[in-house]
Specification:
By secondary structure, the protein is α+β, with helices and mostly antiparallel strands. The chain is built from 2 helices and 3 strands, in the order ααβββ.
């Protein structure tokens, strides 16, 4: 958890959440989806809008010394109107 994430989740405990149970931090259906992703060890990518801010969420398996250790999540604020380019070759 970086400083921005700690501020984002300050009302829930902020940096004190480090080391807590990840499933306690997520309601259904997110909890079930998270269990499935952890079991499968696959990435999950989507966008959300919350409090007038659009974000790209990228959750990916995390490995340490070749051993699957869980997930890492990137949450990036993005504009509502985002240019999209298709590049050939």
């Amino acid at each position: 958890m970086n400083e921005k994430s700690a501020r984002t989740f300050e009302a829930d405990g902020g940096a004190a959440l480090i080391g807590s149970n990840l499933f306690d931090c997520h309601p259904e259906p997110s909890r079930t989806k998270l269990k499935e992703l952890l079991a499968a060890g696959r990435a999950n990518v989507y966008t959300i809008e919350k409090k007038g801010i659009k974000k790209l969420i990228y959750q990916s398996p995390w490995y340490e010394k070749g051993a699957y250790r869980g997930f890492v999540e990137l949450s990036l604020e993005i504009p509502f109107e985002l240019p999209h380019s298709v590049r050939e070759g």
